Amino acid sequence: MKPTGPKNKNHTTGELHPRNLHRAPYDFPRLIAALPELAPFVQPHPLAGDTIDFANPAAVLTLNRALLKLHYGIAHWDLPSGFLCPPVPSRADYLHHAADLLAADTADKTIPCGPAIRALDLGTGANAIYPLLAASLFGWRVTGTDIDPASINWARQLAAANPPLAPLLDFRLQPSASALFANITAPTDSFALSLCNPPFHASPDEAAAGTLRKIRNLGSPTARSSAKLALNFGGRPNELWCPGGEVAFIRRMIAESAARPALCVWFTTLVSKRASLPLLERALHSAHPHDVRIITMFAGQKQSRLLAWTFLSPAERRTRLTSVTSTPA
Q1: Of the chain's two ends, which shows fewer C-beta atoms within 10 Å, N or C?
Q2: CA distance linking residue 97 with residue 250, whole number of Å
């Protein structure tokens, strides 16, 4: 059993990651030039510049398509009705912070890039946003998993629709709703990272209330007719809630990671609620990781956390990453 290392809490300021391409206001003329379909959704901002109605699911979906095309070369992206539409800036932020974890373990402290770096995305969803962004940003080879056949089928279609990225993407159906790493990883599999955007809520009612609150907080005229909008915005049940919410889900992840401690150099997940952290830290203490990191991330007024843990020593982590290429300084 590996010794429990010191707990290292890294807290950022209230801004996106320094490498995040979305730190500046959206450049709507460039976005419209990349995707003309965005133009009808753009309107003057009450204070200055332009904006979209973020309570309009069609506007948000189209903005995502434009962002992905302009900044990441993802020419074809869409979602079937009723699936979770992810915020691109915050999803990119997670990946930049996760990349920093790997960089800290390399000899030259640069981000390891290229297909030698493998990542595992648990609950990839139909949007496949982490695999697509990770492949575009860093050239990583990503395996996305999900319990929903419709999500896996759609994610595979997105990969096929973007030929430059398709060879880096693999999607696997998880046959058991109670398993995470089991069933979809082979004994010989080895990953640099696991990624996860877990279902945050513990029940359908809690999920619906959270979605409704988010829409009403947007404060637009569209948001005031919010009950029907919540259905459009929300996502599928497995994307939004599970028994016990994010705490139960991540506890399962911790337990499975302890059973296969060498599967990933770093196991990581998003944690939405600050109140979840003490319970998760206790679960990690029982699992005896070598190191734990809690990285606070910001997207507008929303704060979330990246929770990361590893069972490997710094020397073991460096050995696992020595065969990969790195980005220029």
Answers
A1: C
A2: 19
**DSSP code of residue 288:** -
Structure tokens at 285: 């203490």
Measured CA to CA, the distance from residue 126 to residue 80 in angstroms comes to 8
Which residue has better confidence, 164 or 223? 164
Residues 6+ apart with CB under 8 A from 313: 2, 290
Distance (Å, whole) CA 311 – CA 304? 24
3-state secondary structure of 271: strand
Strand 264-271, strand 7-11: pairing: unpaired
Taking only the tens place, the pLDDT of each residue in 133-156 is 999 999 999 999 999 999 999 999
Q: How far is CA 12 from the centre of its chain?
A: 18
pTM for this entry: 0.87
CATH number for region 7-30+86-326? 3.40.50.150
Cα separations in angstroms, 135 against 244, 247, 273: 32, 29, 28
Tracing tokens 């009723």 back to the chain, one arrives at 82
